[in-house]
Write a structure and sequence with these properties.
Elements: E1 2-3, E2 6-7, H1 24-40, E3 45-49, E4 52-56, H2 62-66
Antiparallel strand pairs: 1-2, 3-4
């Protein structure tokens, strides 16, 4: 990166995805979308937005409380 005509030092990465990479967001979405499918298979509603996750389940009777 250039800041005021100076170049930052190079650093070797041992693991992870470089910040600002093109594939990082795709890998994250693939991982997070698969995780959302698990609770939905049990009737739990999942809402994802950016880094926020909301889970909810409608309870209409005593059997729903037990579930």
């Amino acid at each position: 990166m250039h800041i005021r005509h100076q170049m930052s030092d190079a650093v070797s990465l041992l693991s992870g995805v470089v910040q600002g990479s093109g594939i990082g967001p795709v890998l994250f979405l693939t991982y997070i979308n698969d995780l959302a499918n698990i609770p939905e298979s049990y009737g739990v509603h999942v809402k994802l937005f950016a880094d926020d996750v909301k889970l909810y389940l409608q309870i209409t009777n005593d059997a729903g409380v037990e579930r």
